[in-house]
Amino acid sequence: MDETILSPRDFESHPIYRYPEYRSTSLRGPTLPLIPLKEKLRDQRAPVYGTDDLGPLDSDLTRNAARNGAPLGERIIVTGRVLDEGGKPVRNTLVEVWQANAAGRYVHKTDQHDAPLDPNFLGAGRCMTDNDGRYRFMTIKPGAYPWGNHTNAWRPNHIHFSLFGDYFGSRLVTQMYFPGDPLLAYDPIFQGTPEQARDRLIARFSLDRTEEAYALGFEFDIVLRGPNETPMER
Fold this sequence. Notes:
Number of domains: 1
CATH superfamily: Aromatic compound dioxygenase
CATH architecture: Sandwich
Strand content: 15-25%
CATH class: Mainly Beta
């Protein structure tokens, strides 16, 4: 197969644009039919991000914003591979993450959750994939937080991911969840993903990736297109 030709997205794996239980989608979801991208535009190469733009601590969220000590919370390692629709590694591509702190609070002026901010934790990081398509972040496990979507609504622990891939048509923004989280059953964002694809959003605990006496390890592989693609965030 010509590597510059991308297969159509598997929309059966992605949440619908307007999902009533996720209230804000009724305001931002499109109401008119989508306009398909022309093939040449869809297959256009994405911007190239060089490693010169990244700092040595960009992928370590436990240190990249430290002021007077270590951030509070459970240290974790999140790693995995970024793959294309054929299962091949996507090399040298930018992976960005953002998340709440251990108390469930974002460093953002619109987040007014009554939980403490951590002066040593920004909650954002980035890295480039290696030749095997692997990325790796050191971070703090994010806390749950209320979000006002419905009565007694709480978001599960999650980390947001943004990826560019090799092509314009491989752009992906998604969320990673943790295994065994009881809030997943009550979360309309997670439940809005088609049932057969929900497991693709849940990381796997990995003892092999765990650093003894320091941080638990989790694996989260991301597939940018094709029948096994990781569902989009809506």
